[in-house]
Specification:
Shape of chain A: elongated
Radius of gyration of chain A: 16 Å
Distance between the termini of chain B: 38 Å
Shape of chain B: elongated
Number of strands of chain B: 8
Largest sheet of chain B: 5 strands, mixed
Strand content of chain B: 25-35%
CATH superfamily of chain A: Immunoglobulins
Order of helices and strands of chain B: HHEEEEEEEEH
CATH topology of chain B: Immunoglobulin-like
CATH class of chain A: Mainly Beta
CATH architecture of chain B: Sandwich
Number of domains of chain A: 1
Helix content of chain B: 10-25%
Radius of gyration of chain B: 21 Å
Number of domains of chain B: 1
Strand order of the largest sheet of chain A: 2-8-7-4-5
Largest interface: A-B, 30 and 37 residues
CATH architecture of chain A: Sandwich
Number of strands of chain A: 8
Structural class of chain A: mainly beta
Strand content of chain A: over 45%
CATH superfamily of chain B: SoxY domain
CATH topology of chain A: Immunoglobulin-like
Oligomer: heterodimer
Order of helices and strands of chain A: EEEEEEEE
Strand order of the largest sheet of chain B: 2-8-7-4-5
Largest sheet of chain A: 5 strands, mixed
């Protein structure tokens, strides 16, 4: 169900600045809500997002409850070499959601 | 005497109304005093991020719609004027939401490899407020940008709690 989606160019020229768009389905439960019986609903959010490019971290985000459900994030990175971009989302339960994209840099 | 027509308003039975009022009362009674962040907490969070450095209010933009019907998912873009080279780049961008229960919404870690100092996301806003973004630059300077947003009534507490 929690299927991450990323949009990365398949090919890019060396040195090009690429826009990367990411989205993942996740409730991002704030911890400030109560259920129908008045009991607090425990916090359950993704607190860390990382993007690594051929093993080196190029972008990271620390999230708090003010990030909307099904977090969307667009950012940029420089196309340096062909290889692989790995995206990871880590939530409060310790679950790591990951996806990868291959890129050819010419 | 003005007469009100209610034919286009969804029917709310007396029982449902009383139940909802009861629930609202319970929620208000249970509302913790610390449900909202305080100006002191915001200042403290800002100090934790940038220490005693003074932000300069230029060189970056924060884009938010001026009005949001609900605060559940508000598009936000932060862009910093920077060449993103080894001697001029952004290290971190922080977003603060003074009108929410917690002062910090997110921190983004950039660097030379970002290439362009811009991020777009969607945030939750519990009520109308001024959103603040700070950018920590490579040379130690800090920039700031703010945007005011009106979050329509009913979108804040109602949506925050029930949606």
């Amino acid at each position: 169900m929690t299927k991450p989606r990323v949009r990365v160019p398949r090919t890019a020229s060396k040195g090009e600045v690429m826009e990367i768009k990411t989205m993942i389905s996740h409730p991002m439960e704030t911890g400030y809500r109560r259920d129908d019986h008045g009991r607090p609903i425990p916090r359950h959010i993704i607190h860390t997002f990382t993007c690594t490019y051929n093993g080196e971290q190029v972008f990271r985000a620390d999230w708090h409850p003010a990030v909307a459900a099904n977090p969307y994030l667009a950012f940029y990175t420089v196309a340096t070499e062909s290889g692989n971009l790995r995206f990871e989302w880590i939530d409060d339960t310790g679950t790591v959601y990951a996806t990868e994209a291959e890129i050819t840099v010419v | 005497m003005t007469s009100f027509t209610t034919h286009d308003v969804p029917r709310l039975s007396r029982r449902t109304l009383l139940r909802r009022l009861g629930t609202a009362g319970v929620l208000v009674a249970l509302w913790p005093a610390s449900a909202w962040t305080t100006p002191e907490a915001v200042q403290q969070a800002i100090r934790q991020c940038i220490g005693d450095r003074t932000p300069q209010p230029d060189g970056m933009t924060l884009r938010l719609p001026p009005l949001a019907e609900t605060g559940n998912s508000v598009p936000l873009t932060v862009a910093v004027d920077s060449a993103m080279t080894s001697d001029d780049h952004v290290l971190r961008i922080h977003v603060f939401v003074e009108g929410n229960p917690e002062p910090v919404a997110a921190t983004y870690h950039l660097g030379v490899r970002a290439g362009k100092a811009e991020i777009s996301t969607q945030i939750r806003l519990a009520r109308s407020q001024t959103v603040l973004a700070l950018a920590e630059m490579h040379d130690g300077s800090v920039r700031s940008a703010t945007a005011d947003i009106v979050v329509t009534l009913g979108a804040c507490i109602e949506e925050w709690w029930n949606n």
